[in-house]
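Problem: given the chain below (490 residues), write out its structure.
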Amino acid sequence: MASRSFPEMPTPSSLLSAYASMSTSIMLFRTMFDQLFPRQLRRYVVDAVRFYWKPKSSKLTLVFEEKDGMSINHMFEAAEAFLCSRINPDSERLRITKSVKENHINIKFADSEEVVDSFEGIMLTWKYVRHQPQPSGGGDDSGYGGGKNSSGGSFSLEKKYIELKFDKKYKEIIITSYLPLIIKKSQELENEKKVVKLHNLQSYGGGPGGFKESVNLDHPSTFDTLAMDPKMKKAIIDDLDLFLKRRDFYRRVGKAWKRGYLLYGPPGTGKSSLIAAMANYLKFDIYDLQLMNVGSDSSLKKLMLRTSNRSILVIEDIDCSIQLPDRKGAMPMFSKLPDVKPVRDSQFSLSGLLNFIDGLWSCCGDERIIIFTTNHKERLDPALLRPGRMDVHIHMSYLTTEGFKTLAANYLNIHDHHWRFREIKELINDTKVTPAEVAEELMKSDNSEVVLEGLVNFLKRKKTEDETTKDGVHYGEGEVREPKKAKVIS
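Solution.
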């Protein structure tokens, strides 16, 4: 049998000699390269080689930032809601939150946590990213800049975004089919688990950046518990229902899809309770705007753009919050009243507020309700009251007999007639008493007989005081009598 011949293997000494020769050649070439070409040219050549020879990635990353210019990015909110429903049990880091009034624990994503999803056989990787606040010297137009906080220090707002990574060749499918599905599912989740929130809009130092903090609105007020005339309740509910289903109508007539309500009447008549009842009925978030925190028209616009669709914007006690310059730059007559506080910055004007209510800026958002409250309707600038700005004026009057029936059912669980009701109703008709005052009397004991007897005595004292009072605010049907110090100067 013939034997096979194998080529001779190089000896270690020959390998070492070849390596030394190659190393010497490389060092010589590098020395010549450094001497012949300047540093700038060498760097350019190296960068060009790296650019053209680098491996091309097959992955595409979509970034969903929290803000789109000055407004909220709806895609970010939709993606965040969708991902919270897809939290992997094997996740290593999660954020846990719970407020004092909540009965359940909220589980959310921690920074840099990833979630893997699939769509039509396509693998997708989601990543949640949060940039923690860093000290800064000022704000910028993006809304992420900072300003001065209440203690005088500087701050910057947290920036959040979500990344979606997948194969480039599926770009068209993801954008046209997967992302619309995310929006649809997020809306379904929101409708199922809608928790009404109360947001506090703030603007620090008049800077362009706004700040928004929120809590869950755990207010028990509903239209069933409101001490209000049943006909008025029905009229408000019917108006809200009609507003919700008229999106196409508003678009057809060329108007922004919004509705303005003015709640006016003496303190303690349930204006705040009505706002909470409207929010609970509609499942709309509430944005509370304190005009004293607004430094300029520009700040107001940026704060308004931070509000979401399907929300209620509330400006309480607009008649006594600030000295609001009118459209000509002058202060209104009631600015000299003792209970009106001076505005912090004259750059904030009535025209700026009106422009957002029904001007060009009013179209920045859909399905919004704007509510003003005041104890003195006659003090307001007529420009605020016309239709298109405040569409519905609701007079929150003193307690009526129908309102007392609701209070008796809520506080004393008395749904039928009681022998004291006749006397109480007669006193209510002859006395200017607020629902808040009567509600306070109904809470003084668990014994309904003791409570009703105390209420009768209270109403009798109240009637005597009203008869002997010569000055003070009096709200009657079609009549307004102002205190001498608070008269409007004409």
